[in-house]
Structures are given as structure tokens and as C-alpha cells.
Amino acid sequence: MRNMLLIARREYLEQVRSRAFRTTTIGLPAIFALIVAVGYLSSLGLGANRHIAVASNDPALANQIRNQLLGDQTARARVEVIAPATQEQRSALVKQVKSSSLDGVLWVEAMPGKAPTATYTAQSSGDFITAARLRSAVNHALVDAQLMAGGMQQAAADKLVSGISIATFQARKDGRIVKSNPEASLWKGYVMALLLSMTTMIYGMNVARSIIQEKTSRIFEVMLAIARPGDLLAGKLIGVGAVGLTQIAIWLIAGAAIFFSPFAAAVMTGAFTVQVSWTEAILFPIYFVLGYLLYSSLFAGLAATCETEQELQMYMPLAAAPTWLSFALILLIINDSNSIWSILASLFPPTAPVIMFLRMASEIPPAWQFAVSIGLLVLSIWGVLWFSTRLYRIGILMYGKRATLPELLRWLRYS
User: CB count, 10 Å around CB of 158?
Assistant: First the structure.
């Protein structure tokens, strides 16, 4: 036990004092914040300030579409109406698009007894925001025109088709009715699951790389003189795991300070309200530790059978497959967190840490599912540790030869 704690202390202090730890602890959140800020700022004004010509053989419909486009304050569009328009005028407008005099031409042809047809011609094929705005404007204009043809006033028709917003609430099992937001729940679960999986994989990889480096430098031959292989592996897992918890704690403290600032209080209101329950706060470190132990012990056994980091990297996609599977199920889980697939994925040990937080984002699962999930994780960790420790005892002293499957089986018997 003493040797194991000494090794854990060495691993912890070595990584915490490193420049890489300081850089990632400060730099990684800063980079993510910069990416989010750049993405937000670059999205401002998308599809805005377009110079569009609306051409139609129906002047009333063309003017209705123009009014709809001008009514969208975020679009800030310049709209010309050419109606009634001929095919020659349409060809001339397309030439203006080619010469960049116009951003696009919307051609709407109304036919008696049939639904109108609409086409949009522009230089860019990827301006989906403008295409969505035009689609909405045409549809609303058609409804307005039909309502006004039935005798309704313009203001009444506009009010009728403007739509309403729906406030969403969640009926919790304790009887409370609380306001909810599906989009906020999705992003909350996604961010927590991403943080959990990212840190688990990063620190599991750190354990594997550390084993490869110490194996190639032959330092193990000295360390094995004072400590057993099992103590070396356990100390490495504890030390690196403590580094991960330290880094996450720093991020959470910094995030809480920002979250409760006056600026965040002004932003995180209404539709942007995000709530984190005590259940989520308590279970996050538990699932981090269990997920980290599961993956890092798997990576440790895998690293002991490899000769170089390049060889180790070849196996990493296979080890990370359960994490990719977890995120592939995100839409299914958020929409129906109590489906049979969601429950099974949250009980399956390799995917349980991520899936549980995706489920908790929409609804807290029953306590028995947490108990079964954690129990299966503990049993899986014990099994993987048993397997990895036996590979580790032999593999760290094997040099110059790749281990084959029959040799790995012999290692298990020797241990």
C-alpha cells in the first residue's frame, strides 16, 4: 500500500507541475470559449443584406412575398418586385445574378386552378438561411392571399399566420411542475457527456503513454526492484485519475464563477435557462472515476503489449468505439430517455457514464437503474483490472517482439 501511494503521489505531482497541465487547464477552456465566440459572431448576419428580385405573373402575390421578406428584421433584405414579369425579364434578371448585380431571383408563377410554383436562382448553392427565409415568405404570402380572397383584412390575416410560441414544462416525479427547455436540456446533456468522455479518454491515454515511455526507457526494471507490478499499475491509475479530478474541479469552479456572474445572469434567462440538479452534481465525479478506471485499466493492459506509441495509436479507435456509440445515440436518448435502447445503453458498462448523463438531461432515471449501472461498472472494472494486471506483469518486461494472441494467453496463465 505504501509503495502504491508513493507511486500515485509521484504521478500526480509530476503531471500537475508540468507545463502541459497548466497549459491545458487554462488554454483548453479558453480555446473552446474562443471557438464558441467565433462561431457565434460569424453566424451574426448570416443570410442578411441580400438584394433579391421577386418576379411573378401575379403582382398581388409578389407584393405579399415582398412584405413578408421586409417584415423579417434580421434579414435586412433589399427586395425588388417585377410583376407581371415575362420570360425575357426573367432571363435578364438571371444575367444580373451572374454579374453580381443581384444576389438572387425568386420566380413565382401562379397558374389558375393549380398551386403556384417557385424557383430561386443565386450564385451560391449553400445559402440555406436565405432559402429557408424565402420558403417561409412564399408560404405565408400564399396563406395571406387566400385569407384575403375570402374577405379577411390584411392585419387579421398577418396575425393569424404569425404563429404562437409554446411554453414547455416538466412534470417531475416529486409532484413539482417546472419550466423546461428541450434545446437547453440537449446542450446541457451533450456538454456534460462530452466533458466526461473527453477527460476520461484523455487521462486513460495518459496512463497508456506513460507505460509505453517507461517501458522503452527501461525505468521499470529499477522500479520493480522496490514495488510489485500490481502496485505500480494501481499507483499510476490513482495518480493520473487524481490529476483528472483536479483539472475538472478547476474548470467547474471557474465555470461556476462565470455562471453566477451578473453578465451570465443577464444572458441565462428565459429560453437560455440551464438547471443542474444535485443528482447530476453528485453523480458526475462518481461516473468520471468509474469510467476513468474502466478505460485507463483497459488502456494500461493494451499498452503493456505494445512496443511504441505508434503501435498503441493503432488500437485506440477500437478502444474508443463505445464512446462514439454513445454519441451516435444522443438524439434517441434525448427524445425518449426511457426507451428500452436508452435503458440498455445506460446499463452497458462501456457506454454507461455518457449515456446516463444524456438521459439525466431530460429526465432523472429511477434509483435502481443508477444502482445497477454503477454495480455493473464496478464488476467490469474488477474484471478488466484482473485481465490488465496479468498482461502488465509480463508485458512491461517484454522488448523487441510484438505479442501474439497465443502469447497473451500464456501471459495470463503465467500470472
Answer: 18
